User: Fold these one by one.
Assistant:
Number 1:
Amino acid sequence: MAEAPILEVKNLRVEFPTRRGTLVAVDDISFSIAPGEVLGVVGESGAGKSMTGAAVIGLIEPPGRIAGGSISLAGRRIDDLPYEEMRKVRGREIGAIFQDPLTSLNPLYTIGRQITETILTHLPVSQAEAQQRPSGSCARLASPPPRSASTTTRTSSPAACASGW
Amino acid sequence: MPVWHHLRDLVRRFLASDVFYSFRRSPTVMIAFGLTLLFMVAAALAPWIVPHNTYEVASLNLMDAFLPPAWVEGGKLTYLLGTDDQGRDVFSTIVLGARVSLLVGFASVFLALTMGVALGLIAGYVGGITDSIIMRVADVKLSFPAILIVLLIDGVARGLLPRDLHDKAAVYVIILAIGLSTWIQYARTVRGLTLVEKNKEYVQAARVIGLHPILIMFRHVLPNVMGPVLVIGTLGLGIAVLTESTLSFLGVGVPPTEPSLGTLIRIGNNFLFSGEWWMAIFPGLFLVILVLSVNLLGDWLRDALNPKLR
């Protein structure tokens, strides 16, 4: 028996009420991911890949809703958490990277500032400490990012953020 | 990094920006900007730069009433644009009046902008029933003319406040009234833009990292919808100045002891057909130039901030 799963999804069902009855976007899906394990989900457009991901991280927009099943993160149910509780889990225990990572950056702010934002949101550290952390984690990457990333924005330097910041 | 370093960075970015480039290329806009700036500086420093303090009733000399402008026969050089029925220097009253007009304009735009932007952001971002309530109030408000609401608010204030208190508070009542009747434009625009922005990935990403919704709204969405708001604000300044003048012309605006441009035109209007044209024409001319300059700036800003029009 392998170790306890870090993420466990059981009989997940996501529904969207529409004029022509209920649309079932995700129908009875179950999977579990152990620590260190990578799971790839393959399917045609509209198969429900994104909706599964959105449900896990709690990003389903009303009127869509999780109609059944459960999602557990490290043994704790997260699909029925109140909004404020879920907010503390997001970015701290669970994250998401969208299809085009570049568009995940606000065009008006520097890349450095947006990376420290996650740290500042969840940890009681100062701005200066937060700025040290990303460069520390970047040192572990194969290609160290240009230092200028903390002073350039997404539109002025796409290469800077593609390189690992 | 020290503060001045940031500031220098900001200035350098502004000088290199497309907006500044298009500003330098248009002589009309530069003149409009210069005139607006001139009016604002003059208005801000008015009590110290006017040749005659017309608020000081004791300094007025009725013997000097109805003097024509200095270059017309019978005019005095100290009263460059002539005097009114009470011997007040027309030039001084115009500069002091522009101060009142601009104060009302800026303050009411600030009020409307703050209120409209905040409500529009909330309506667009939160959606659902909050959105419905805010936008239905706006729709109702849009179904009758702004000037009626201003008259209503002013009328209520007149009824509630004792007369001498109302004269003192008149300016604030007008600011409140104009502000409350013009926030809808900002709210509708910001709501529409917010609906677009909130589905973009950087907003989704901000939600994924667990940022508080209020922070997402004001830190991430707000700066991205500010462009059009600035344009409406600039154009709104012209409209607010005109609305205030209209009210003062109708006699429900600021009291005649501290006249705005509108009040001056109303006073001058009484004498227009008896030949004392300078009392109405000069304040009117100033008002036209001021509003025209501000509107030209607003028009230019709209084009400069919209890449599709270039």
Note: The mean pLDDT of chain B is 85.
Number 2:
Amino acid sequence: MAGIASYGAYIPLYRLSRPDIQKAWDSMIPIPGEKAVASYDEDSITMAVAAARDCLTGIDPKKVDRLYFASTTSPYKEKQAASVVAGALGMGRNTLTMDFGGSLRAATNALRAAVDAVESGAAGNVLIACAETRIGAPNGDKEMSFGDGAAALLVAKKGPVSIEGSISVFQEFHDMWRSDKDTYVRFWEERFVREAGYLRIMPSTVAAALQKFSLSPGDIAKAAIYAPDPRLLGMAGGKMGFDPMAQLQDPLYMTVGNTGCALSLMMLVAALEDAKAGDNLLCASYGDGCDVFVLKVADGIDKIKDRRAIKRHLESKKMVPNYLKYVQWRGLMETEAPPRPPINHISIPALWRDMDWGLSLHGVKCKNCGTPQYPPQRVCVICQAMDNFEPYNFADKKATLTSFSHDNLAASIDPPSTIAAVDFEEGGRIIFNMVDRDPAEVKTGMPVEVSFRQVHFFESIHNYWWKCTPIRC
Amino acid sequence: MGNIKGIRDKVAIIGMGCTKFGERWDMSKNDLIFEATKEAIEDAKIEPKDIEAAWGGTWVSGFDGRCLADPLKLQYIPVTRVENACASGSDAFRNACYAVAAGAYDTCLAVGFEKLKDSGWSGLPDQQSLPSNRYPDRTAPGMFALMATTYFSRYDLSPEEGKRMIGSVSVKSHHNGTLNPKAHLRREVTIEQVMNASIVAWPLGLFDCCGVSDGAAAAIVVPADKAKDYRPDPVYVKALQISVCPSEGELRADYDFTQVKATVRAGEAAYAEAGITNPREEISMAELHDCFSITEAVTCEDLQFSPKGKVKEDIESGFFELTGGLPVQPDGGLKSFGHPIGASGLRMLYEMYLQIQGRADQRQIKDPKLGLTHNLGGIPISNTVSVLIIGL
């Protein structure tokens, strides 16, 4: 039997209130709550990296055998996203990287594959990172209900959570889908989707899973079951024999929104944050069928509760000032470009050559004088020793802000662009942009941390590097 | 620092020219080069065919020797294009002077030029681009604003006190610009206008930043012992120094932005070459690289005009005004005269040259002996600096 050795999650800092969306469209239907919105420089890859870094707290990424990335909103249709995530995490070159996509079951499909790999002995451990940035059409119901987020699990031979097993059914079904030509998710009539889809197969698959593992609904401490909204979950939960208030894990609708394939694993992570030894847990996803997992929590669960996971990310938030900001961040409307020179034609050989330090924030440390420096140099900036360096990871080091400016001239989707001169506690300096901050709160000397972000999308290339933020949570 | 030998008093300037700087929509770069060079040739009272070698300093407006040979129809002489960011013009001049001092030529031309207003962009192109494009857009105001943030913080200036200090620098330069018919901007501004102007890159506001301009300037140099054959009032080259920073501020956590080491080094070397031991007393006037008001303030400390951390007192006492003890930017500086990048080093020499000869009209300083020019190409964390001294 395989287990979960660690978990992590990521929710974007920014939230958009549903009443603000309603006001923008002068819409009649009041829908409460707020949705998490990935910033203009975040996407499914950057959020997967954030969740994976949370999961790998205190764990050496080079000791991970495989990286499975799951999303229906990978930035690329053809180019592996998992390799970008693995590069950003500083994983070894022999890591087996795989992309899972195509349906809202992509993340639990990845979980099943990870369990199979570990149980068969093919892999010692597998890191799963799932993330979504699904967009609903403007002035629509899905725009209201969708949200952005990510989760990560480290599946291994042993851990404080054991994965007892799973049951799956498939269903070829167009309740929600998106073809390769669509920007927005499409869906059939709500009643059909509910009654011929979710309510027909979810309860029966959950029942089959419980029976397979000789459990009754009352044995389950928490059921983390994907649902597009709480009302539907309540209806299904009743059919499954669960007490909705006590046993159903919050589907995060009011605080994050429907995060597609990432939702069931985000809900599982939230359940694990509160779990205690002896708990039986259920995790279920839905999309062209169902995957239902049964898990058991053991001693040692408290040791991994220092992750940011769901709770701390939920509590740390800023509001998107208005609906139009969201429209601009998602690129849903063409806006006037600032009169700044265009980005230079990109060099792919340079991008490839820079991969280690560009993606994983690895610099070098001079073996002669001990000074860390970034980017990697051939001649030491302090003692001028030549070619006498060892690799040095900046991503996990404490850092403070030495100087900053809020630049209104620099091209940015969300000006001002905050330039930050960041100095690392153990040596070295990097000049970053700072994001996820209120300009009025930025002060010299404040502690900061690094965050993996998309810098440009230009010439069809998603170009990634790092930025800094105030300590998130 | 090593033994500074240099070429003090071996070369003299016998003619200079400078176009009006500004938004010269009607002038191509070739028009600007021609206009500045024609004035220099006429000022030197030589024939174009007397020029034996030429150097053209420009950041992005030309690429090889043809940049001068073509518009000026220089007849098969050696011509080189020189680029050293904002020190390009000064470096073109430096090359021409070394050629004369080496005895290779007797008459050399240096032209600095830049045509920036054809692009339509706001501000200059990116300061820190990589071929992989990973770095986000970093502007000059943004990178120099870091200098203001830490200067204010290190010397306990509130944002208001700090903005007042640097704002006064711009008020002074704007005033001097009104006395200069060739300046791009010719209007007075008040300290209130400067401090309340819209923010470009906090804490730098609109009037803390020099604008983008077109322009050209030129100089003709000959051996010092032949200078009086051309005119009774040649101006002699005392020091030509360049210092280039190996991007230390980008990599080292101990660089705090309140000093530019390359300016300090170039200044020390220039003073040694020129035989100056007390710059504050011996330098009569200076044109410093005031791309941003904070840059001028820090440069006054780096060049030993003011003690470290104390430039505010000198600014407040009027020490750097036209009527003060060490006038800085008598022609309006980058702020008012404008900053066509390749031209600026030679434009600075042009003002020092006119002042030494008593031809500076309403801006005339009383009995100047030595004029210093300073250029800072790049940004505080990574830069190339020139310090030149000319005089009697």
Note: The mean pLDDT of chain A is 95.
